Amino acid sequence: MARLSIDAGLHATFVPYNKQIHYNMRYWFFALLTCALGTLTKAQEISQIAKEQPFRWSGALNVGNDFYANSGDVPFRSDAYSWRISGNPTAYIYGIELPFSFTLGRQIRDIRYPTFNQFGVSPTWKWVKVHAGWRNVNFSPYTLAGHTFLGGGLELTPGIFRFSAMYGRFHRAAATNAGQEYFLPTYKRMGYGVKVGIGTQTNYLDLMAFKAKDDPNSVQIPDSLGITPGENFVLGLSGKATLWRKLILCIDGAASAYTRNIHSEPVVLDSLQNGAYYGSENVVQPTFSTRFNFAGKASAGYQSRNFGLNFSYEHIDPEYATMGAYFFNNDIENYTVSPNFMLGKGKVRVFGSYGVQRNNLLGNRAETSWRNIGSGNISINPSPAFGLDLMYSNYRMNQTSTAFELSDSIKLAQSTTQFSATPRFTIIKSSAVHSFILSGVYQVLDDENPLTEKYGDVHARVGVFSWNASFTEIKFNINAGFNYNDVRLGETNTANYGLLFGVGKSLVKDKLNLNLNGNYNLARLNGEQDGAVLNAGLMGTWLAQEKLSLTFGFHWIKSTSSFRGKFNEFRGQAGFTWVLR
Q1: Is residue 288 part of a domain?
Q2: Same structural domain, 144 and 92
Q3: pLDDT value at residue 2
Q4: 427 - beta bridge partners?
């Protein structure tokens, strides 16, 4: 018996309650039509839809109050009293999800509810999948890559053959209205794409084409804004080959013809009929605002049981863009190598990576920036009771002059190095579990510009030792430890060190949970004692009923540090949560 599955999406779009809503009947009709298509694709499955519960709720309602008071050198960082009511109820009508949300408070008023202007379904039957409504389709990283559109699509996967096609609206025509000057106007943008391929998940080759174009007559946009109607055509290739189940080769590439302004003067090349690229002026007609760019990535990786090695290379031309993706980092070239291996039957695992990145691929910038990124991780686990994690990373960036010599005042040259070590020890008994963790981190940011290094260098050291114990029979948790951190930024050096402590207990048949936490830190400024900071807090949760829980909390901060300010600060909160089912 054939199986029909429906992927229905109505999750992301909400409309504030206080904005004027224009109910376009075409959207309602389209939404109902897509629902009908989704349920009628396979007539035998209507009975499955009928088995769905007609209507149900889920979500939660939250009500809370906050109290705040302070005294000392710092200003009030909150209102003395505030309240809030929030909820996220979701209605389900025959399996269709309709999410709502609202937040009300002393200074907050926001109600949101779903509309059909981003409704979509993707019913599937055997090797046929249909898209209708607001959907996201992915061809490859450099062609059509997850851009939301309103339209339709089709995916066919009969055996080793693959075919995909889509058509829809990527932007609606929108002009800037009074009070919305921060929104840029947009032309209506329509697009379509096709992908054909052959293969499986481990071995395949796909070819794809994507075209999008703005409608210059869809909206009137003032020339002063510099927004012009554009056009884009992209050809792409994607492939993967798995050899001997251990060697994996991957490639993704695309060539993009992007016209910034379709009203620009056309370019006619005698060597090409009608001056059109790709064989037809209906595909793309180059103008003086058209640019042709390439982007691609290739990788080769080997992975056995105890050893792996991966090489990758990525090249994205300056100003490379596609209307099928929201954003691209361009003008970059990356080389990366990533080894990994295991020793001692998996008791020692090593992971590493080193990469080099540069920009200015055309050599027309005033400078070229080089980035070197290296990292390594070692995890040692000789027994279940003991383990050690080591991590090292180094990030280096430098600029070299090209068109002219860079001044030291604008030259960027810096490196960041970080090292951390985390040994851990665990004792497991029938009545309790004890864990001891020591973590140390050392980080240096080295500013190599001679004019800014005096103020830009950063050295940081952080150390934490903690003991955690969980007593399962009496449902009691306790933790204690010591923390230290030292940060030097330019000529200022701050340090904090002290103790931390916490307990947690479940009472009244697990209906009441209490947690008390605190830490006390001494402070130093440029080597001199600078007071102390005390933090203490109590949190509690009471499960009054199956669907109703009450919460309360208190938090106190006392500082005698001149650098941080001398003050007392108190926060309290109380509220309840009601679960909708």
Answers
A1: yes
A2: no
A3: 41
A4: 434
Q: Give the per-residue pLDDT at 384.
A: 87
Q: Name 36's Cβ contacts closer than 8 Å, sequence gap at least 6.
A: none
Do β-strands 413-428 and 432-447 pair in parallel, antiparallel, or remain unpaired? antiparallel
Cα separation, 393 vs 380, in Å, equals: 18
Q: Count other Cβ atoms within 10 Å, centred on residue 478.
A: 16
Across 88-203, where does the E strand assignment appear?
A: 90-93, 96-99, 101-105, 109-114, 120-125, 128-138, 145-156, 161-171, 188-199
Kindly state whether residues 265 and 222 are assigned to the same domain. Answer: yes
- First and final C-alpha spacing in the chain: 34
Query: Are residues 184 and 277 part of one domain?
Result: yes
| Domain ranges, residue 144 | 137-306+315-324
Do 171 and 95 share a domain, yes or no? no
Is residue 191 in a domain? yes
Task: Tell me which of 279, 298, 324 is where a domain ends.
Answer: 324
Report residue 555 as tokens: 């938090």
- Check whether residue 158 and residue 99 sit in a common domain: no
Closest CA to 277 of 260, 297, 256, 263: 256
How many beta carbons lie within 10 A of that of residue 24, not counting itself? 12
Main-chain phi, psi angles of 566, to 5 degrees:
-100, 115
Q: Do residues 102 and 194 share a domain?
A: no
C-alpha dihedral (369, 146, 25, 112), degrees to nearest 10: -70
User: Residue 295: how many CB atoms within 10 A of its CB?
Assistant: 25
Q: Are strands 476-489 and 492-507 parallel, antiparallel or unpaired?
A: antiparallel
Residue 400 placed within a domain:
no
Dist. CA 338–CA 303, nearest whole Å:
11
Q: Are residues 152 and 287 in the same domain?
A: yes
Over the stretch 291-330, which tens digit does the pLDDT of each residue have?
999 999 999 999 998 999 999 999 999 989 999 998 878 8
Q: Are 496 and 519 in contact (CB under 8 A)?
A: no
**Phi, psi values for residue 540, rounded to 5°:** -145, 150
What is the predicted pLDDT for the residue at 95?
A: 65
Q: Residue 369 and residue 563: Cα distance in Å, rounded?
A: 38
Domain end among 267, 290, 324: 324
Q: How many CB atoms lie within 10 A of CB 201?
A: 7
CA 22 to chain centroid, in Å, comes to 32
In a domain, 143, yes or no: yes
d(CA 459, CA 490): 9
Q: Is the dihedral of CA 149, 150, 152, 157 positive or negative?
A: positive
Contact (CB, 8 A) for 333 and 315: yes
What total number of domains does the chain contain? 2
Residue numbers in the chain where pLDDT is lower than 70: 1-52, 94-97, 106-119, 177-182, 269-283, 366, 398-413, 448-456
Write the CA distances from 415 to 443, 490, 492, 527, 579, integer angstroms: 11, 15, 20, 27, 51
CA–chain centroid gap for 41, Å, is 35
Residues 119, 242 within the same domain: no
